[in-house]
Specification:
Layout lengths: L16 H7 L14 E7 L3 H8 L13 E6 L2 E6 L8 E7 H13 L7 H10 L34 H7 L6 E8 L9 E4 L2 E12 L4 E8 L9 E5 L9 E6 L8
């Protein structure tokens, strides 16, 4: 399939991809082509493996390792599939021609898949502790501050940002962590966190998880205040809770089934 004849595919969701790639050109001459004919269907959840089997007409996409990708045939349509998800469940992202997307979508729905909107996906990604660009990170943080050091290999040759990362990782300005709040109390992004009558951080993302039975959040805090099981007070400026809500610092991976 000519659509997928490149050696790699970058899927961007924050709108800064072209700007970032342009800065990385270093004088290289490239040809850029805009194409709106590529669609992405995100199939996620405990039944995703069963559902992907119902439409695979060749090699099974379930043979892919986690984060692997490859070309497959789905209902006779040639597609690229990546075994990735934006939740705490296994999942598959199906990249297909726009005219085939509706056909595949209808098949998945008729075989038991449930369509969901972005708000539902946002709850699932907070439960899994996955970050959202523009909320939990802005591009100015280091991997250490985001608790993402595992994605970079210091033994590799020089790569963009390596020197700055190594220098700044020694003195993080803040750290991201999880925050568990008993009960279902919607909290706004920006709600302040306090310990011993002093502000120590803010909530960056929050979700009321009905099936976990609690409110879960990702928070940006002062490094010295991030201690597992430490209790903090949460004050949402939009709510009149004089005593604040009690929260417990924890891992931000509230749920994972992968």
């Amino acid at each position: 399939c000519q659509k997928f004849d490149a050696d790699w595919l970058i899927c961007l969701g924050a709108g800064f991809g072209v700007e970032y790639l342009t800065k990385s050109l270093h004088g290289a001459e490239v040809i850029a082509k805009a194409d709106d004919d590529l669609a992405c269907l995100m199939l996620q959840g405990p039944n995703s493996k069963r559902l992907i089997h119902t439409c695979a007409t060749g090699a099974p996409p379930t043979s892919l390792p986690r984060f692997g990708h490859g070309l497959f045939s789905i209902l006779g349509c040639e597609v690229m599939i990546a075994r990735t998800s934006y939740s705490g469940e296994d999942g598959f992202e199906i990249f297909t021609e726009r005219q085939d997307a509706t056909y595949i979508w209808r098949h998945l729905i008729s075989n038991g898949a449930s369509p969901v909107g972005f708000d539902a996906i946002d709850i699932a990604r907070v439960e899994a502790g996955l970050l959202f660009f523009g909320k939990d990170m802005t591009g100015l943080e280091t991997l250490t501050e985001l608790e993402l050091d595992f994605i970079a290999d210091e033994s590799k040759r020089e790569f963009r940002g390596k020197t700055a990362w190594q220098r700044k990782s020694k003195n993080p300005r803040h750290k991201l962590c999880g925050l568990s709040i008993d009960g279902l109390f919607p909290m706004r992004e920006g709600a302040s966190l306090w310990v011993n009558n002093s502000p120590v951080g803010k909530i960056t993302s929050c979700a009321t998880s009905t099936w976990l039975g609690r409110t879960v959040a990702i928070a940006r805090m002062e490094p010295g205040s991030v201690t597992s099981k430490r209790q903090v007070k949460v004050f949402d400026d939009g709510q009149c809770y004089a005593e604040g809500r009690a929260g417990i610092i924890c891992s931000r991976r509230f749920y994972s089934n992968v």
